[in-house]
């Protein structure tokens, strides 16, 4: 992954101040984030304040997550520590998406966010599924990479399933017709590693306006996801401390 100084590095975005502010919080859970990303706890703050090192750690964790999730979806027990985490796969995936958003590793978002969206859909949590579908599509630049195009189209096909169950049928039909017009299989989302048929067309940027809105207040989902991620980490840290305190009192 390119360093922030490389020409191919991602440009700083409006999330940079949010990340800096988060890292400056006294209650930021450096150790918990470090454990999630496979960082030596002794180096947690140093690594997480180095954007390049943090993004490299997120990239490694994303690959580990995808490999473990592949094992799980193939009916095998994951063999890695991440795969044996009690929050795996959905909670771990949400945390990795949050980390990728917070550290602006936009290219790492789509594949994990799609799997999280599928998990939520299969659990009946359609609003959460819709949120992660939107996040997939916000993270893909149309026509830049055929693999990302496939992931974005898979998210669009999942959106049809979400809308058929929880949204206006007319909007589900509209997006289904759009998929057919672009030669995209309606069940592409079911593939663990989606790829496009030879006669399909490149991702067009989405018709999400015809589906579930990303947020009721129309703010970017990315900001919501960052804050949800931080709140989740802080809540976990508080629960852990409370459990440890209760154990000490016994």
Summarize it.
By secondary structure, this protein is mostly helical. It has helices spanning 15-24, 30-36, 44-48, 51-73, 90-102, 109-122, 126-138, 146-166, 169-181, 221-249.
How would you explain this protein's 3D organization?
The protein has 250 residues and is an all-alpha fold. It has one domain. The chain contains 10 helices and no strands. Helix 6 packs antiparallel against helix 7. The chain is globular. The N terminus is likely disordered.
Number of strand elements: 0
Structural class of the helices, strands and pairings? mainly alpha
Number of helical elements: 10
Approximate shape: globular
Distance between the termini: 48 Å
Give the low-pLDDT segments: 1-15, 207-226
- Rounded radius of gyration (Å): 19 Å
User: What's the helix-strand series?
Assistant: HHHHHHHHHH
Q: How would a crystallographer describe the biggest sheet?
A: none
Percentage of residues in helical conformation: 55-70%
Mean pLDDT, all residues = 82
Query: What fraction of residues sit in β-strands?
Result: under 5%
Number of domains: 1
What oligomeric state do the depicted chains represent?
single chain
What brief labels describe this structure?
10 helices, disordered N terminus, mainly alpha, 250 residues
Q: What's the helix and strand layout?
A:
Layout: H1 15-24, H2 30-36, H3 44-48, H4 51-73, H5 90-102, H6 109-122, H7 126-138, H8 146-166, H9 169-181, H10 221-249
Helix pairs in contact: 4-5, 5-6, 5-10, 6-7, 6-8, 7-8, 8-9
